[in-house]
Amino acid sequence: MLAQSKAKGISIADYNDKNFESVRPELQSTSHDIAVHTKKVDVASSSQVDAWIDEVVKQFGGIDGTVNAAGVTQRFGLRNKPNILGETNKMWDRTLGTNLAGVFYCTRAQVKGMMDLPREPRSIVNVASIASLMHGGDCFSYGVSKVGVAYLSTSVAQDVLSHNIRVNTVSHGVTKTPMISQSFGPDAAGQMDTQGFGLIQSEDVAKAIIWFLSSKSSQVAGVNLPVGPGTP
């Protein structure tokens, strides 16, 4: 969708770099002139994140907008209660290291990169989830990380708004992606229908992100936007 919105350049950073070769021609088929930059990055490493943002600024000459959608998930409703006893130190450290620390490192590096550029309207969008708004009795590290992302985004929005940088959050409902079976098992769609939550498509989330990145939301900052049926 960014390519369709006539973005001049896109940088994609991910620890899983298997799809890098396929995504480049896909983006360029949508917009022939778009510059595509890819880099393998572990967002739990602040030094790797800083190096990535430095590289982006050097290649493109600036940063207009960013999306931080790093995340690892947990399995919901599949443990014996009390669920807290099944939450290991390893789960906690890995989930918060990626989902919360990773978004913090990215946001900090992006703000720094933007501050070093001429003052112009810029936007940062951090992706949380419905877990930032609705709290259940399971998947504690995942939920805490998403609540943390929402708090971080709202706080940074207040901190940098005077520098013409907007920060917002998208908190999506259960989304149809390859990761969904990891979280809810093979009958994820059936579970969501039973509980009154419909599955949403990744395109639904992307539309909200694109809006936050665009000038159409120029007066919106510090918002945690729920996307999807069943979200508050």
Brief overview:
The chain is α/β, with parallel strands linked by helices and 232 residues long. The protein is built from seven helices and six strands, in the order βαβαβαβαβαααβ. Belongs to the short-chain dehydrogenases/reductases (SDR) family.
User: Major β-sheet, in short?
Assistant: 4 strands, parallel
The beta-strand count equals 6
Q: What is the terminal-to-terminal distance?
A: 26 Å
Supply Rg: 18 Å
Range of helix content: 40-55%
- Strand fraction equals 5-15%
Kindly report the average pLDDT value.
Answer: 87
Which residue ranges are poorly predicted, with pLDDT under 50 across at least 5 consecutive positions?
none
Structural class: alpha/beta
Would you list the SSEs in sequence order as H and E?
A: EHEHEHEHEHHHE
Total helical segments: 7
Tell me the overall shape. Answer: globular
Query: Order of strands in the sheet with the most strands?
Result: 3-4-5-6
InterPro entries: NAD(P)-bd_dom_sf, Sc_DH/Rdtase_CS, SDR_fam
Pfam families: adh_short_C2
GO molecular function, one term: oxidoreductase activity, acting on the CH-OH group of donors, NAD or NADP as acceptor
Keywords: NADP
